[in-house]
C-alpha cells in the first residue's frame, strides 16, 4: 500500500523538512505491532556553495590596555564602515579580547588587545576586493564557503520528494519479499544532513604582516558540496 497523495502532500507542505515527524502508532491494533519493519532512505544532490566568508583580525600590543582598546576600536570601526558601504556585504564583529602578555620568564610585560571581523557575501569578487583593501590594517585569518538559505530552499522540495519516493519503494519491496500483502506507515522522520565545503586558514597568531594600501584582491573560488536528506521510519506490514 502506497502513501496517499494527500498524506505525501501534507508531509511536504505542513512543516519544514528537517523537523518533520509523523506518528500513526497510536491508531494501530496491538496485534499489528509484531509486524513492524524499520527502513531508511536518502536523496542527495551536488551544489556549488554560493556564500563566501572571510575572517579578519586586528591585534595590538603594549603597556596600556585602555590605549590599545581605543586604537583597536578605531580601526575596527573604520573597517566596519568600509564594509557596510560595499554593496552585498554582510559584516559583523565576532570577538573582542584583552589578555596579558608574558616574557620568556613568565613575567607579565604588557597587554594584547584583539578584535575579529567576519565578512560574508554572495559576490566573491566584491568580497575579495574588500578583503584586499582591509588587509592594510587587518589580517586575514580564515575563509570558508557555505550554502545560503535561499539555495538550500531551492533544493528542499526535490530532495524531499526523492527521499519519500525511495522510502515508499523500499517499503513495497520489503513487504513483498517478506510475504505480506500490504503495508501501513507507522512513523516517519525526515532530517537534513548537509556536507559543507569548509576551507579555513590557520588561526591563532597573526598570519600576515600589514599589507600595503595597494593590496591585491583575495581570490575566492568554491568547490562542490553535497546536500543530503535522510528519511527514517517504520511500517506495519499486513497479510
UniProtKB/TrEMBL annotation:
GO terms for biological process: DNA damage response. Coiled coil: none annotated. This is DUF541 domain-containing protein. It comes from Parvibium lacunae.
